[in-house]
Design a protein that fits this description.
Elements lengths: L2 H4 L5 H29 L12 H23 L6 H24 L4
Helix pairs in contact: 2-3, 3-4
């Protein structure tokens, strides 16, 4: 993508930039951060667990549905689906917060 700034290859690359940014930020950086936080945040002291596993599996599912929806709406120029994609990404973040809130807040009690 960046090579097209220095050496003009194709104008199609400029069309792909929103999808590229979505995949890099949400598909790579955010998922990596959520995964590391899931592992690094303190575990529950009583049962040595990290919380509900089905709820933890919902986080990447919601996030990936949101990413696919956003990328497809960018590529197909279908602006009506952008809100749906962002809502799925928001659901992933809210699920993450709900899953981890007690692990962070009650650790020193």
């Amino acid at each position: 993508m960046l090579i097209n700034k220095a050496v003009f290859i194709s104008p199609v690359f400029w069309f792909l930039i929103p999808a590229h940014i979505e995949v890099m930020i949400f598909g790579w950086i955010i998922q990596f951060t959520l995964g590391v936080a899931y592992w690094i945040l303190p575990r529950y002291l009583e049962d040595k667990g990290r919380g509900s596993k089905p709820m933890a599996y919902l986080i990447p599912i919601f996030l990936n549905i949101g990413i696919v929806t956003m990328v497809s709406s960018d590529l197909l120029n279908w602006n009506g689906m952008k809100l749906t994609g962002r809502l799925f990404e928001l659901m992933a973040v809210l699920t993450f917060v709900i899953l981890h809130w007690k692990r962070v807040v009650t650790y020193n009690k």
